[in-house]
Amino acid sequence: MFNYNFRWAQALNSLPQMLEGALVTMEIAILSMAVGIVVAIFLTVFRLSGQRVLAAVATIWVEVARNTPALFQIYMVHFGLGSFGIHLSPYLSLLIGITFNNAGYLAENFRGALKAIPDTQTRAARSLGMSAGQAFANVVMPQMLRISFLPMTNQMVWAILMTSLGAVVAMNTDLYGVTSDLNARTFRTFELFAIAAVIFYLITKAITLAARLLAARLFRY
Amino acid sequence: MIEIENVRKSFGPLEVLKGINLTVQKGEVLTVIGGSGSGKSTLLTCINGLEPIDSGRILVDGIEVHAKTTDLNKLRRKIGIVFQQWNAFPHLTVVENVMLAQVKVLKRSKAEAEAEAVRQLKHVGLSDKLNVYPSRLSGGQQQRMAIARALAMSPDYMLFDEVTSALDPQLVGEVLDTLRMLASEGMTMICVTHEMKFAREVSDRVAFFDKGVMAEIAPPEELFGAPKDPELRKFLAATH
Fold first, then answer.
1. Nearest residue of A to residue B48 by CA position?
2. In the CATH scheme, what is the homologous superfamily, with its name and number, of domain B2-239?
3. What's the burial of B225, exposed, middle or buried (CB within 10 Å: 0-12/13-18/19+)?
């Protein structure tokens, strides 16, 4: 039963390929976060706008993103849109799927953060002659992003881990995809996935650390 | 000139302003006194259009504040307001707090805005705090910063809404000194306050509000020396 022979050296030969995959994973996570934050800000503004249609769009987005599996979301982008003749590459499907998920979660975080900012901040800004948009962009939003910084870090970690869901759309250039392909060819299953797990772990730890350093630089108040 | 004509305002079933008529001339210092819930603070927020009114009208330099066609953002540049809660922007340094609206609203260059901010902060005695964050300031200092922030917009009118009420007693003096200085410089001011001594000293006229009605308005020596309204008499007896 336990006659599995570890061949770490053989598995480690694949390390350069796996690290390349890790770069793709980071690229997708970073892009999906960057776009996700911007979209989440829009969703937040939609919900504040009092425009019923925009608010409904934002609410549905947030509800779907947070209450259905991320795997379904990615699957729908690839195969769901595929049913309508919109064929996206696995890379793009994964990126869009994770971005959709990020934006939904972040918008909800932003909503929570807004509750912590007193209305009097907006009042003070408006009384200085700022428009509603100027007050939001210059006074409320910076504070909202600061309060949401920790949840944003969590979401970034989650985005890294979600890239492995690319498996359902046959994504094969990210860390999980590369590892999976190597496994299919060499059957060094335990070693390869253990190495991949360590790489995932190191990436997420690095992100948490970087976020902490960034926070110390950005938020001096 | 600020003209308030028969202004009524309710919050739900509660009528907080029951037909206020009042004119404030350029250069005048008017203080408004009265118990809590008398409508005096609401009146200030109506003057700069932060609160809608139910009927009547308010004219600032002949512009009707609550008319649909009035550009409130533009009108508010004329009218500075400082609140009981000073509302410092916590993510900006003191000088940035004072610069922000100048840059965004008045479209001043950063250099111009900074020069003006430094000038105003010096004016209120905060020149040694330019680059600290508001969390490092005392309440009185934050309140003076809020005053500088409003003054940097070069307003024609200043409204002060119980600006010392949230301060520790030992910090009240520094803020009142700032207001006295402004009054002596000829700023047109409406101050809602509980500081009777201050009201007596700086005001051209004092108005007493009671339950949404302006019960009495007179020069301070007259209003404090020979109050006519029975509620005002009670109020003064209780605050002395």
1. A127
2. P-loop containing nucleotide triphosphate hydrolases (3.40.50.300)
3. exposed
